[in-house]
Amino acid sequence: MFLVHSSQYHQPQQIAPLLLNHKISLSDAKSSDKSYSSGSLVLDKALGTQGYTVTRMVEISGHTGAGKSTLALHAVAACQVSGGTAAFLDAEHALDLSYAMKVGVDTASLIFSQPKTAEQAFSTALVLIQSGLVDIIVIDSIAALLPMNHQNKSLFHDEENALEHSRVLANGFTTIRAALKSSSCTVIFTNQLRQKPNNSGKEAFESVGGRPVLNMMATRIRLKKSYDILRNNSLIGHHCKIKVLKHKDGVEGASVTLPLIFNKGMALTHETLKYCSENGYLKQDSSGAIFVRGRYLGPSINQVVTYLDQHPKLRNSLNRRLLNISSRRF
Q1: pLDDT at 13 over 90
Q2: Which of 13, 38, 140, 166 has the most CB atoms around its CB within 10 Å?
């Protein structure tokens, strides 16, 4: 893992020379012409662009425990599996790297930073974008991007602090968006929800950050906990309902549901096998052995799930084939 900490550098400009000494080169970063996978087949399909669009900013919002960071980590893992380079700016100072590994992130090649202020986070992201070495940047989270002079102050109950936060975000988003236009990078922000003031409508919550978030994010995804997942009467996870609130380059309004298993992440292999079966890719012989596109993967569905979990490159390859199938057949 390549660490970028305030204790290691005094100015964000110093990051780029350090990156050149890291195990990253321009030839290593494999970018897509149009998008980077979210990690989820059904979400990539729902977006209509086979993932998050290159050169865009994405917001993943939801209440605590909904799965925001997990979904962002799946995008990081998918990027790395495809040969790309990812960075994670942990403004929350809460990322569990052992959990990230379970989700599929290669922490050895992950660029990792824990910025202390909004200004430092945006400066670091800007240098990473301009370096041309990074494909996906995750910033976790917008709510934790506190201005330098507003540390330890509440954004949720003080209108003045919320307005200052919104101003700093607007400046930061504007800078990042301009830099992204000449890059092959995508920036993903996670975000919390707050209760709307004087709310009289059905939706009682909104994203932290106000209009800068609403207006400047090209893609906005909202996560919500759905029904629990039980095994032997023990809670092992929950279904996560994901709605595409905004997507400038594709489809808006679509909703999908993904199972989230505690301490493991989203159950991504199940969706791959489901669509493989529906499109004739998955076959089972008289002994119960499973074949996918003629390749033997295991003696039972459980073993196949385990195999694909352990071989994400194969799963991603299958996902790309399935995404290229026409919507009518999908």
Answers
A1: no
A2: 38
Residue 32: what pLDDT?
43
Residue 31 in tokens: 């970018």
- First vs last Cα of the chain: how many Å apart? 38
| Sequence ranges of the chain with CATH classification 3.30.250 | 272-323
Write the DSSP string, 21-40: HSS--TTT----SSEE--S-
Q: Classify domain 272-323 at the CATH topology level.
A: Rec A Protein; domain 2 (3.30.250)
Instruction: Give domain 2-266's CATH architecture.
Output: 3-Layer(aba) Sandwich (3.40)
Query: In angstroms, rounded to a whole number, what is the distance separating the alpha carbons of residues 84 and 74?
Result: 13
Q: What is the DSSP string of 228-277?
A: EEEETTEEEEEEEEEEEEEETTS--S-EEEEEEETTTEE-HHHHHHHHHH
Are the beta carbons of 225 and 177 closer than 8 angstroms?
no
